[in-house]
């Protein structure tokens, strides 16, 4: 069984009297260790799909199997645990905590860890990840003192700190210039290749999507070709 | 471990907005400080009031003999002669709720100094503990007579301010001699001015002497003369056998009556009794137990059986104690109201700021939820921020409150009394204000939808 299996996912928003279907029956598989790009124009439903993949949103109907277990969508608490254990997020606008150092940003998800780690272990893991993304000399810099590319790298380190099964990147290069974008995308490829990390890239940019092994097109709430 | 991490997160979040945190806490600081200062000033005032009321005689009990009745004709309160000085001694020894006991023998007669004379309202024969009972131990001059002088029935006395004015016209009376019914008393002390009592009686119009002296040298002769008008010279030896110890110095102007004549005009045989016994209870709360203990003891000493009525009455200053109690109660309630209002105001301030903080950090909350924070984690984080704010405010408030009550004490000389209860209550209340007013914003934060929160700018 693949790491991610979506079966006939529907999502309909109810805006007053009007029903607005966004996802109209999406089925897709992502294998372990794959680097997949979800591509589509804005309004195609790719963001909604990514929210469902990231267990941030509930589908109206359909099944979602993650790591051979069906996501039950029951309580907010269980979804939070699932996100914590399985999923790392990278956002378009980085979403770092203001007035906080790079190290503290990476340490933040560990605050909610269920297993007991000593302060030293947590710190060690965070520093290793910051070194891996090439920020060993920026560990104690405030997030506002970092450039856009550096901020996104801190965000990647933060996403990896819980050893997630899958990394979801929502337009990770949307706010970056082309050179920095290239660096970030190479880092994704490197992570995918070296650590066989499953990565789902969401983008509207075919240039970015070219870095993936497989491209899934979304058009009007359906898988396109 | 978990709670420690939560606390640390809360502290660092508060540190990021240090100015706002300080200003928010200020409400609680002022509230708690106000509570503590008010409580301490109130306590001090309450103690001062109690002390003042005690000098008015709030803790005082008076034992008077019951009314005597001759053939169905009652003679009025205090006419039975049942109280003895030994009763007073026994009460001192055996009643733990009693602090001081003073037997009193009253007289009303003229006091003469040189060419002036005066009839004081009170001529009291008593013991040295009278001043403790009346909380009147401060003297203008001289000192109180001693137990020794009571036992010797020494002819010494203390006088109040009114008598000083009337007889001495402002001169120092200590060491001078006044005559009371031709007995010369040396003045050994002057009482401090006390003024009128609650009934408007001048309390400074008083002369105190050992009760033995008044009993055997003054009252004895006065009763003798009451029986035999104009015979002020009659020897008191016939009247009271005890008086033989203290031979009367007056000359017998009339022949000593023969045995037959004495038998024809019998005179009452008097035991050594006192007119009343004045008692102070250890505190206002112990008045009731003091009354019980004294009743039990005196019934036993007077050999009263179960069905017999008491041959004495114990009176307390019900009016004054009731006033005192209601004053203290009113004060406490008033302070409680002030405390509640200021803490509620502080709590609303905390809630307001926490709501602003939740709105401002919606994006951060969304992010924390995305990386796996459960709703409970968010709730705990914001709640602990509010509680930490309130507790820090409480601690600051205690320091400020203690400081300002110290200042009030040293600069304004208002009486204050440390109140541990107020400190404990202030900390408890500020923590619960944090929980109560911090809960709604924290709950609101925990219910945010992560997608909505992440989109929020």
Folded structure, characterized:
- The complex is a heterodimer of chains A (225) and B (457).
- Chain A is of the alpha/beta class and 225 residues long.
- Chain A has one domain (4-223): Rossmann fold (3-Layer(aba) Sandwich), CATH 3.40.50.
- Chain A has seven helices and ten strands.
- In chain A, a hairpin with a 2-residue loop joins strand 1 and strand 2 (18-30).
- In chain A, helix 4 crosses helix 5 and helix 5 packs parallel to helix 6 (178-195).
- Chain B is an alpha+beta fold.
- Chain B folds into two domains: 2-53 and 324-455, no CATH class; 59-316, no CATH class.
- Chain B is built from 14 helices and 14 strands.
- In chain B, strands 1, 4, 5, 6, 7, 8, 9, 10, 11, 12, 13 and 14 form a twelve-stranded mixed sheet that branches. Chain B has a two-stranded antiparallel sheet with strand order 2-3.
- In chain B, strand 10 and strand 11 (183-191) form a beta hairpin.
- In chain B, helix 2 runs antiparallel to helix 13 (420-446) and helix 10 (318-360) packs across helix 12 (375-412).
- Chain B starts with a helix and ends with a helix.
- The A-B interface holds A 51, 54, 56-57, 76-77, 80-81, 83-85, 88-89, 91, 95, 97-100, 104, 108-109, 111-112, 116, 158-159, 162 and B 1, 5, 9, 12, 16, 363-364, 367-377, 450-451, 454.
The count of DSSP E runs of length 2 or more, i.e. the number of strands of chain B, is 14
> Major sheet of chain A: size, sense and barrel closure?
6 strands, mixed
* Weakly predicted, low-confidence segments of chain A: none
* Interface with most residues: A-B, 28 and 21 residues
Tell me the strand order in the biggest sheet of chain A: 6-7-8-3-9-10
Seen as an oligomer or otherwise, the chain set is heterodimer
């Amino acid at each position: 069984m693949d790491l991610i299996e979506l079966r006939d996912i529907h999502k309909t928003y109810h805006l007053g009297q009007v029903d607005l279907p966004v996802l109209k029956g999406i089925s897709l598989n992502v294998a372990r260790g794959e680097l997949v790009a979800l591509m589509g124009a804005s309004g195609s439903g790719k963001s909604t799909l990514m929210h469902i993949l990231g267990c941030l949103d509930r589908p109206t109907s359909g099944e979602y199997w993650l790591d051979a277990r069906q996501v039950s969508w029951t309580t907010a608490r269980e979804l939070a645990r699932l996100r914590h254990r399985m999923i790392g997020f990278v956002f378009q606008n980085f979403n770092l905590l203001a007035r906080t150092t790079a190290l503290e940003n990476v340490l933040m998800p560990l605050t909610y860890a269920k297993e007991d780690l000593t302060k030293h272990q947590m710190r060690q893991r965070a520093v290793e990840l910051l070194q891996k993304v090439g920020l060993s000399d920026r560990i104690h810099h405030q997030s506002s003192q970092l450039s856009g590319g550096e901020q996104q790298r801190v965000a990647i380190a933060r996403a990896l700190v819980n050893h997630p099964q899958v990394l979801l990147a929502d337009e990770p290069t949307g706010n970056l210039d082309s050179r920095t974008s290239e660096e970030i995308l190479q880092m994704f490829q490197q992570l995918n290749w070296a650590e066989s990390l499953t990565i789902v890239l969401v983008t509207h940019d075919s240039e970015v999507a070219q870095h993936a092994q497989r491209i899934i097109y979304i058009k009007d709430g359906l898988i396109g070709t | 471990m978990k709670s420690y991490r939560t606390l640390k997160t809360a502290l660092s979040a508060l540190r990021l907005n240090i100015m706002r945190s300080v200003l928010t806490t200020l409400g609680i600081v002022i509230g708690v400080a106000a509570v503590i200062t008010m409580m301490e000033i109130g306590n001090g005032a309450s103690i001062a009031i109690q002390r003042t009321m005690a000098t008015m005689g709030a803790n005082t009990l008076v034992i008077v003999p019951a009314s005597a009745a001759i053939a169905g004709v009652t003679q009025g309160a205090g006419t039975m002669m049942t109280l003895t000085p030994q009763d007073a001694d026994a009460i001192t020894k055996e009643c733990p709720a009693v602090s001081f006991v003073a037997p009193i023998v009253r007289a009303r007669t003229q006091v003469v100094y040189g060419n002036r004379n005066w009839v004081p309202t009170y001529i009291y024969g008593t013991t040295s503990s009278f001043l403790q009972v009346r909380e009147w131990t401060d003297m203008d001059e001289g000192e109180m007579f001693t137990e020794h002088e009571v036992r010797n029935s020494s002819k010494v006395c203390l006088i109040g301010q009114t008598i000083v004015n009337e007889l001495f016209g402002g001169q120092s009376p200590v060491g001078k001699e006044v005559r009371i019914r031709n007995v010369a008393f040396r003045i050994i002390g002057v009482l401090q001015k006390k003024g009128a009592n609650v009934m408007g009686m001048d309390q400074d119009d008083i002369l105190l002497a050992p009760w033995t002296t008044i009993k055997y040298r003054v009252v004895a002769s006065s009763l003798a003369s009451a029986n035999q008008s104009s015979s002020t010279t009659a020897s008191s030896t016939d009247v009271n056998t005890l008086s033989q110890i203290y031979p009367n110095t007056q000359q017998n102007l009339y022949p000593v009556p023969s045995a037959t004549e004495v038998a024809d005009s019998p005179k009452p045989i008097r035991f050594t009794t006192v007119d009343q016994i004045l008692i102070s209870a250890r505190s206002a709360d112990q008045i009731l137990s003091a009354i019980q203990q004294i009743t039990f003891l005196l019934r036993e000493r007077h050999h009263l059986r179960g069905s017999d009525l008491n041959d004495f009455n114990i009176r307390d200053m019900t009016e004054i104690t009731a006033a005192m109690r209601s004053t203290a109660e009113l004060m406490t309630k008033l302070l409680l109201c002030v405390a509640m209002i200021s803490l509620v105001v502080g709590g609303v301030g905390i809630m307001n700021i926490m709501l602003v903080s939740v709105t401002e950090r919606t994006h951060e909350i969304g992010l924390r939820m995305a990386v796996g924070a459960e709703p409970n984690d968010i709730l705990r984080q914001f709640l602990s921020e509010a509680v930490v704010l309130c507790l820090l405010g409480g601690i600051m408030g205690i320091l400020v409150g203690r400081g300002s009550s110290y200042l009030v004490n040293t600069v304004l000389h208002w009486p204050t009394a440390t109140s541990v209860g107020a400190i404990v209550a202030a900390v408890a209340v500020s923590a619960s204000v944090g929980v109560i007013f911090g809960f709604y914003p924290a709950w609101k934060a925990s219910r945010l939808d992560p997608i909505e929160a992440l989109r929020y700018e």
